Amino acid sequence: xxxxxxxxxxxxxxxxxxxxxxxxxxxxxxxxxxxxxxxxxxxxxxxxxxxxxxxxxxxxxxxxxxxxxxxxxxxxxxxxxxxxxxxxxxxxxxxxxxxxxxxxxxxxxxxxxxxxxxxxxxxxxxxxxxxxxxxxxxxxxxxxxxxxxxxxxxxxxxxxxxxxxxxxxxxxxxxxxxxxxxxxxxxxxxxxxxxxxxxxxxxxxxxxxxxxxxxxxxxxxxxxxxxxxxxxxxxxxxxxxxxxxxxxxxxxxxxxxxxxxxxxxxxxxxxxxxxxxxxxxxxxxxxxxxxxxxxxxxxxxxxxxxxxxxxxxxxxxxxxxxxxxxxxxxxxxxxxxxxxxxxxxxxxxxxxxxxxxxxxxxxxxxxxxxxxxxxxxxxxxxxxxxxxx
Length: 389
Hints:
- Helices cover 2% and strands 41% of the residues.
- The chain is mainly beta.
- The N and C termini lie far apart (76 Å).
- Mean pLDDT is 86; it is low at 332-339.
């Protein structure tokens, strides 16, 4: 128990509080506060009166009274109940209407039902697939989590979320370190973020070194490398706050335009890349026997909030051309017609002349200058059909 009105005081065991009845659990796997009915719940808690292990038991204190855990006190609301399917409890998440509980074999809905039983349970499914205690987060009445076979959502029923990045994530995620996986919200961008430790982590001190994010409004996915061991979403006063174990620092996110994890700060290594683009999927072009020739680009970029007076704001526009699907992208050539090129775009660049040829084109926007934000509009590309040779 810790009192926020006296922040300098250390936490104390509930059993040692003045007026405690001595019935609080000696041990619990995890705890959760039910804000709707104002109970503290202890999951996997030692049993009432015996203190024997109860890996499938949830206990709760009397309403608004963490000193009273006496289930025999008819004037209070303290109580307990067991879950039937499984061997132990993994985690729980509170929504606006219920508490969703995972055992190692099933999912339950735990609901406040009032006196005399206080809480009741309903089986959601006899299937459980969740990586650990922190691998779940809640957005309004929807619960999102990650398991060994994919991403899931519960909003009255369990559904598996289709993810085009799962094959990549499942091969990279270190399942031996699954207990370190945790999920959080990123409300500013309508995202659920899952942080995990990868198999390729070259710095074990970073532990959780990667993430995968799901935009639940646009139904889009992104992933990357970022060492963060804890994440606190934004509120009315603050930006997202995160911890990084490698350097023992707290980071303010969405502040400024640079990578502040280095001293001095450097531009963010950010990019977005398209899938291969062909001329057309109609008519004769669907046979794949037409090449394209690119001769001019009309960029459409704006630079906002530029705060560095030493450099002009810029971004790189990268064209990669491919002749055959299995042949990969060609390297930049010294000839007049290249297979790839990097075009620096500055604030007042109106057009760029290039000579590129290939069966398919991939467009990548990357980089940026120190202290600048950039936004892409609708670039125009001058393309014409080209011969087969």
